[in-house]
Each structure stands twice: as structure tokens, then as C-alpha cells.
């Protein structure tokens, strides 16, 4: 298997929109160069623009990202210690847990349960498509754990393919089909 070239890594992996996991913002990377020509994986010097229009010039690692080999190509992943998914994923998991708690609450206090359920469902709607993806992942795998016991580790493991990836409305539409 041949090692990917600098041009291939730059053009196919780095020059794109990523989730800067350190800043929790999307960034469009425009230029990228390895710090050392013999070290293609790890840290690179990059320039780009965050979704808030702030310019960035610096190492990939300060974005909370790293370049790693994967099946003969390079992919961008979150550095350890950074949440690897978009904040909507974590909010969706919490909203699903809140919905389960609201249903339980409504057994003892129907009025309070109804209010809590409405709040949880609103939060679930705001976190689409993540809410649907999480529910499908749980149902597809026949999880033996209730949703209330799922945690961030499960979420990041289940959706590892989305690490450091921003989810656009087009991506959401194609993933839901």
C-alpha cells in the first residue's frame, strides 16, 4: 500500500470544512502544509475561516484536530480530550434522556410531566438530524441499555465516523434517506 502524497492529503482531506473541536466552531480550511515533509500525519500548518468569519492561521492541533492514516488515505479526527462531535449531538442525547425522565415524571405528576415533555420534545426538534440518528442507532443495534444510561462515550463511539465533521442540511438529508 502506498502512502498518500502531500498534495492528496491537502486536497482530499484538509481543504474542506471541518469541526474545530477545540473552538466548537466550523472552519473552512483554505491552505495546508505539513510542518515536516517526512511527517505527513499529525500536525500541519493551516489557514482558514471560522463560521463566525474570524480568520485562522496556525497549527491543525490548535483547532483540536489531527491528521491520521486510515486505509491508505488520511482523515481528520478530533484530538483526544476534545468532544469529537457537533454540540447538537450531545444536546440531542440529553434531550432524549430528558424525554424519558419526563415520561417517568408524568406518572407521578401529570402537569409537571407534560411541561417537561414539551420542553424535551422542543429540544429534540432543535437537534435534528441527531435525534433521529441516535434513536435509529439504538433501535438498529437492539440496545439492552435504556436511553437514560447512554453516555457521551457511547455517542462518540457510535458516531465515530462523524468525528470532527460538521453536519450540513444536505448531509442530513442524504443520511436520513
Model description:
- It is a single chain.
- This protein has 177 residues and is an alpha+beta fold.
- It has two domains: 6-78; 87-176, no CATH class.
- Helices cover 42% and strands 21% of the residues.
- The chain is built from six helices and six strands; from the N terminus they run αββββββααααα.
- The strands form two sheets. A four-stranded antiparallel beta sheet has the order 1-2-3-4. A two-stranded antiparallel ribbon has the order 5-6.
- A hairpin with a 4-residue loop joins β1 (17-20) and β2 (25-34).
- α2 (87-108) runs antiparallel to α3 (110-126).
- The longest helix has 22 residues, at 87-108.
- The radius of gyration is 19 Å and the shape is elongated.
- The two termini are 34 Å apart.
- The model is unreliable at 169-177 (pLDDT under 50).
Helix content: 40-55%
- The tally of domains stands at 2
The shape, in one word, is elongated
What value does the average pLDDT take?
A: 82
Main sheet strand line-up? 1-2-3-4
Q: Which structural class do you get from the secondary structure elements?
A: alpha+beta
Q: What is the string of helix and strand elements?
A: HEEEEEEHHHHH
Instruction: Compute the CA-based radius of gyration.
Output: 19 Å
Largest sheet: 4 strands, antiparallel
* Beta-strand share of residues: 15-25%
Low-confidence stretches: 169-177
Amino acid at each position: 500500500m502506498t502512502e498518500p502524497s502531500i498534495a492528496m492529503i491537502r486536497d482530499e482531506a484538509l481543504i474542506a470544512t471541518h469541526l474545530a473541536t477545540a473552538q466548537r466552531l466550523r472552519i473552512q480550511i483554505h491552505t495546508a502544509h505539513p510542518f515536516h515533509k517526512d511527517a505527513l500525519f499529525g500536525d500541519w500548518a493551516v489557514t482558514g475561516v471560522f463560521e463566525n468569519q474570524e480568520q485562522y492561521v496556525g497549527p491543525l492541533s490548535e483547532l483540536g484536530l489531527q491528521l491520521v492514516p486510515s486505509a491508505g488515505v488520511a482523515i481528520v479526527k478530533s484530538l483526544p480530550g476534545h468532544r469529537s462531535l457537533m454540540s447538537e449531538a450531545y444536546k440531542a442525547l440529553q434531550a432524549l434522556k430528558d424525554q424519558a425522565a419526563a415520561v417517568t415524571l408524568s406518572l407521578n405528576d401529570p402537569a409537571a410531566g407534560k411541561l417537561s415533555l414539551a420542553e424535551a420534545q422542543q429540544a429534540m426538534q432543535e437537534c435534528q438530524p441527531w435525534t433521529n440518528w441516535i434513536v435509529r442507532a439504538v433501535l438498529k443495534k437492539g440496545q439492552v441499555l435504556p436511553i437514560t444510561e447512554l453516555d457521551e462515550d457511547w455517542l462518540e463511539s457510535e458516531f465515530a465516523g462523524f468525528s470532527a465533521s460538521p453536519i450540513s442540511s444536505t448531509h442530513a438529508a442524504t443520511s436520513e434517506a
